[in-house]
Structure formats: structure tokens, C-alpha cells
């Protein structure tokens, strides 16, 4: 019995191989974000940050947030508690789930909610310099 090897000629196998390799590479690069890590990174500020001289807490923290998430938010809440205490909220000891599948805490935590009253254009919000403490618009 003779087995004859067949190989395809032309661009189709090469294009197919390229697409497979591209898909495999993208699958490793594009991963869904870890929502709990994102939450901690964006919302937990413990111990509470002291802004640079002349800056308000909200101006500084909203600017830092815009650098981290690459977008400008008009409102944001920061939680001033250790992460270890926050994890207990979603257990029967520390809280309960509400109708939106969110955890309601039995314990009160110190929070700061920042509101930007007069936002700067996006390109200024995302610039690499820290905010001007003299600018009354904040971020």
C-alpha cells in the first residue's frame, strides 16, 4: 500500500495558519478584567491619600483615577477601609445580597464621593501633569 502525501499549494493554507496564530495570540492578550481587582484598584483608598500641597483630595484622586482608567469620570466614590474588611461584606457575617446581586454591608464605612462640577475637556483631563490647584474647575 502506498500512502501519498498531499499538500496544498497557494495562499489559502498560509492565510489560514496566519489567522489561527493571530487568534491564539489575541486570546492570550485579551482577557476579561478581574472585577474584584478592578474594584479595589479604583475604589479602595486606604489609608486615605494625602494630596500634594495646595490640592484638594477630590481633584487629586479624580486625576489619578483618570490616569489609571484612561477616561474622565464626573463622579466617583472612594472607600477608606482595608480590603480585608471589605471582602466580608459579601458573606453572611458582613452583609447580604440585594435585588441587583450587589452586596449591602451591615457595617458603615468611611467614604468620599467626588463630583466634578465643571469638567475640563477630555484631552486636559487625561494629560500627564497633575491638576493645577488654582483651577477652580478641579478636573
UniProtKB/TrEMBL annotation:
<dbReference type="InterPro" id="IPR001427">
    <property type="entry name" value="RNaseA"/>
</dbReference>
<dbReference type="GO" id="GO:0004540">
    <property type="term" value="F:RNA nuclease activity"/>
</dbReference>
<keyword id="KW-0732">Signal</keyword>
<protein>
    <recommendedName>
        <fullName>Ribonuclease A-domain domain-containing protein</fullName>
    </recommendedName>
</protein>
<feature type="domain" description="Ribonuclease A-domain">
    <location>
        <begin position="32"/>
        <end position="138"/>
    </location>
</feature>
<comment type="similarity">
    <text>Belongs to the pancreatic ribonuclease family.</text>
</comment>
<feature type="signal peptide">
    <location>
        <begin position="1"/>
        <end position="27"/>
    </location>
</feature>
<dbReference type="GO" id="GO:0005576">
    <property type="term" value="C:extracellular region"/>
</dbReference>
<keyword id="KW-1015">Disulfide bond</keyword>
<dbReference type="GO" id="GO:0050830">
    <property type="term" value="P:defense response to Gram-positive bacterium"/>
</dbReference>
<dbReference type="Pfam" id="PF00074">
    <property type="entry name" value="RnaseA"/>
</dbReference>
<dbReference type="InterPro" id="IPR023412">
    <property type="entry name" value="RNaseA_domain"/>
</dbReference>
<dbReference type="GO" id="GO:0003676">
    <property type="term" value="F:nucleic acid binding"/>
</dbReference>
<keyword id="KW-0964">Secreted</keyword>
<dbReference type="InterPro" id="IPR036816">
    <property type="entry name" value="RNaseA-like_dom_sf"/>
</dbReference>
Amino acid at each position: 500500500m502506498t500512502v501519498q502525501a498531499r499538500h496544498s499549494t497557494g495562499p489559502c493554507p498560509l492565510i489560514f495558519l496566519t489567522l489561527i496564530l493571530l487568534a491564539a495570540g489575541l486570546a492570550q492578550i485579551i482577557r476579561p478584567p478581574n472585577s474584584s481587582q478592578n474594584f479595589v484598584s479604583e475604589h479602595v483608598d486606604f489609608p486615605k491619600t494625602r494630596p500634594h500641597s495646595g490640592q484638594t483630595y477630590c481633584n487629586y484622586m479624580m486625576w489619578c483615577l483618570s490616569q489609571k482608567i484612561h477616561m474622565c469620570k464626573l463622579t466617583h466614590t472612594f472607600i477608606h477601609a482595608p480590603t480585608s474588611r471589605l471582602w466580608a461584606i459579601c458573606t453572611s457575617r458582613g452583609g447580604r445580597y440585594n435585588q441587583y446581586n450587589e452586596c449591602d454591608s451591615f457595617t458603615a464605612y468611611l467614604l468620599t464621593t467626588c463630583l466634578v462640577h465643571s469638567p475640563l475637556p477630555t484631552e486636559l483631563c487625561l494629560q500627564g501633569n497633575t491638576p493645577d490647584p488654582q483651577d477652580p474647575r478641579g478636573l
